[in-house]
Amino acid sequence: MAAPQTVRWAARHGVARTVLNRHARRGNLDARLMTDLTLRDDPFASYDVIRGRGPISQGPFARTSASHDVCAQVLKSDTFGVQLRPQQLPGVARRVIQLSRGGVLTPVDPPSMLAVDPPTHTRYRRLVSKVFTPRAIEALRPRMQQLANDLLDGLAASGSHGPVDLVERYAALLPVTVISEILGVPTSMQERFLQWGNGAAVTLDIGIGLGEFRRAEADITALQNWMTGHFQRLRDNPGDDLLSKLVRVEDSDGALTEIELAGTAMLLLGAGFETTVNLIGNGAVLLVEHPEQLARLQEQPDLWGNAVEEVLRYDSPVQRTARVAMADTEVADHRIPQGSLVACLLGGANRDPAVFDDPHTFDVARANAREHLAFSAGVHFCLGAALARMEGQIGLQTLFDRFPDLALAGRPHRRGTRVLRGYDAIPVSLADARRPVAA
Ligand code: HEM
After folding, report:
1. Contacts of 216 (CB under 8 A, 6+ apart)
2. For the whole model, what pTM was predicted?
3. Does the N terminus or the C terminus of the chain have fewer Cβ atoms within 10 A?
4. CA–CA separation, 386 and 276 (whole Å)
5. DSSP assignment, residue 388?
6. What residue's CA is closest to ligand 1, atom 7?
């Protein structure tokens, strides 16, 4: 049985919060990155310092790495997994983990595929991949383009009266509409999905406050209840969408159970828009702030695909993940005992000078931009990477083709999340007053 909410919060976040704050006060840089808002806005110098101390250094709970080589090794290794096994932990930690469990289905708890290891992970991934195929994704291209055009039409109509918020009116709406259509969930639910998704996004962070935790659990529970009812509707009246297929898909072990279905559907929904909104928002701000790079894209539109890779590298929508050692092991000459965590700073690995020349320069023509780890690596490599890439390219290229003079009309505002990096508001004016808005 799940512990009461305050006990779950204390075990999951409260203890971590106290430890993080103590380490941050003592100057531990990784703890400060998770607690200090000013560092969160610009974490890249801190990643350099962490990397400068060596390929792996000791953080408050975990060993930490901002090295591309180490992060790739850990993420690809089958000695590392995502499930903390309580039996491998000392008594107090084991009790804390047990108390933190139960409650609601977050993206970082089983049966979310992000939170389970093979062979369970292999089964979930195989079942979802049966319906989430590259062909099905590619078939979405014309519809995605249409949606981008329609949203920009709406933006043009309101933008003629003054500044608009690019996140609210475009960067958030395109991904949530696309994933809702793929999953076959009604577009009338979008506003509520966005609210629930924000709740889920917060739970990716360690050490959140009790109020945030309560709101997040309420948002996620509401989504879970809605999903469960929705599965029943799909069984009675299936459509051609991904969820209608997922409720029926089977392997030799049978179909997904109700809780596995809910975990999978909520992960796909949340992952489908909570990250891509950041890719489009981060990309839009970068291109407005680097007009010479935008000019290059306008001259050479075939560079757009690469520009999306460079946005993913330079300002990664997911900044960190972690793995646990399932046996005593060694990485970069560091002994890693069984049960210990290694935090992989993806945003730091993507600025590692050992892989990327001049890593702090935003260069849409960078030859090896695609070597980034923004979609992670190994068995948990992002299942939606092809969809995200297509959405990033269509989203950004259509925006700047339509509004080549897009300009900031105020300071963009960063979201409060630490694992996810993006903006929650980007005030823009759409066109130079001297130029008519493109038709
Ligand atoms: C720019 C957009 C996106 C970024 C940066 C991103 C990033 C990531 C990362 C870093 C992981 C792995 C985390 C880890 O290793 O611990 C992941 C996993 C995942 N992503 Fe994405 N993602 C994006 C878009 C999407 C989209 C559009 C979907 C679509 C439905 C999606 C679905 C998933 C799923 C299902 C997983 C879990 C895969 C597994 O555990 O096997 N993602 N994503």
Report:
1. 106, 199, 200, 202, 203, 208
2. 0.92
3. N
4. 12
5. H
6. 375
290 burial type by CB count under 10 A (0-12 exposed, 13-18 middle, 19+ buried): middle
Q: What CATH superfamily classification does 5-429 receive? A: Cytochrome P450 (1.10.630.10)
Check: CB of residue 118 under 8 Å from CB of residue 152: no
What local confidence, expressed as pLDDT, does residue 278 receive?
97
- Ligand 1 neighbourhood includes 167 CB (under 6 angstroms): no
pLDDT at 422: 96
Q: Which residue has the tokens 């839009």?
A: 284
For residue 373, the ligand 1 atom closest to its alpha carbon is 10
- Which tokens in the block code for residue 141? 């291209």
List per-block mean pLDDT (blocks of 10 residues) for the chain, which spans 439 residues.
75 80 86 82 94 90 93 98 73 62 74 93 92 88 96 84 90 93 85 81 80 86 87 88 88 85 89 93 98 98 98 97 95 93 96 98 98 98 96 98 95 91 95 47
> Quick one: pLDDT at residue 378?
98
DSSP label at residue 64: E
CB 225 within 8 A of CB 198: no
pLDDT of residue 140: 92
CA of 270 to the centre of ligand 1 (A): 10
Residue minimizing CA distance to atom 17 of ligand 1:
382
Closest ligand 1 atom to the C-alpha of 264?
A: 35
Is any ligand 1 atom within 6 A of the Cβ of residue 80? no
Q: Which helix (H) or strand (E) holds 342?
A: strand 341-345
